[in-house]
Design brief:
Blueprint lengths: L1 E9 L5 H9 L4 E9 L3 H15 L5 E4 L4 E3 L4 H11 L4 E8 L4 E10 L3 E2 L12 E2 L5 E12 L5 H13 L3 H9 L4 H11 L16 H14 L2
Parallel strand pairs: 1-2, 1-3, 5-9
Antiparallel strand pairs: 3-6, 4-9, 5-6, 7-8
Length: 225
């Protein structure tokens, strides 16, 4: 059976229990679920990378599963690994259905042990911490593995919008606007709108930051629960 290291960063996501339950129930694979809780984003990614590198030789694959991503069934990790093994893929990116934008997004990454990782201090793209040059990479728009942020809180939806606004992913904002109304989507749109008011020059969007909390409190007063 494939030995798979699953990395998850948790900061209060509502989907977390469902995320862990389906990961722990995966069939025909041996899972090591490495969970890092309640840390700032950049140190958390650095720690996750260190954890992977320390056990890399004991595993076949590494997949990063967000705490707000719920896999669709108990065979999905085996399916990913088997596709990679049979097709000699080093880096595989597949889709999740993102509730807020109502899109299937290429966003879920799996690597085999040939991929080199490094420790990144990039504040906005700290998860781009691996080298894929001269590797076999597949970006599969047709393989949907689960639901993202289906159960998210209002503050998580707000952070989604703010974070992606800082990345200038305005195509997602437009898709949220065209999706059926929900309060969560309204919070996400407010996140996009607050980008110009976010004074953190490092572009770190962490729940623990006073600047982030102050912005959210203003939006919460406007939108409510």
């Amino acid at each position: 059976m494939y030995k798979v290291f699953v990395g998850t960063l948790f900061n209060g996501e509502n989907d977390f229990e469902k995320c862990c339950e389906i990961v722990n129930n995966q069939k025909n694979v041996i899972i090591t679920h490495n969970i890092i809780k309640n840390q700032l984003e950049v140190p958390a990614h650095i720690q996750l990378t260190k954890d992977w590198l320390s056990v890399k030789n004991q595993h076949d694959f590494y997949i990063k599963i967000d705490a707000d991503l719920v896999l669709k069934d108990e065979n999905i990790i085996f399916d990913i690994c088997n596709r990679m093994f049979e097709n000699k893929i080093d880096y595989y990116q597949c889709c999740m259905h993102d509730y807020l934008s109502n899109l299937n997004l290429l966003s879920v990454n799996t690597w085999n042990t040939s991929i080199d990782f490094f420790l990144s201090n990039d504040k906005l793209y700290c998860d781009r911490n691996f080298k894929k040059e001269q590797k076999t990479c597949v970006f599969d728009k047709n393989f949907l593995i689960g639901n993202h942020m289906l159960y998210c809180s209002n503050i998580a939806a707000f952070r989604y919008g703010l974070h992606r606004g800082l990345k200038e992913q305005y195509n997602l904002r437009d898709k949220i606007r065209s999706a059926p109304y929900s309060l969560k989507r309204a919070y996400a749109l407010e996140g996009f709108e607050q980008v110009t008011k976010f004074n953190n020059t490092t572009k770190v969007v962490d729940y623990h930051l006073d600047e982030f909390q102050k912005l959210f409190e203003k939006v919460h007063l406007k939108l409510g629960d």
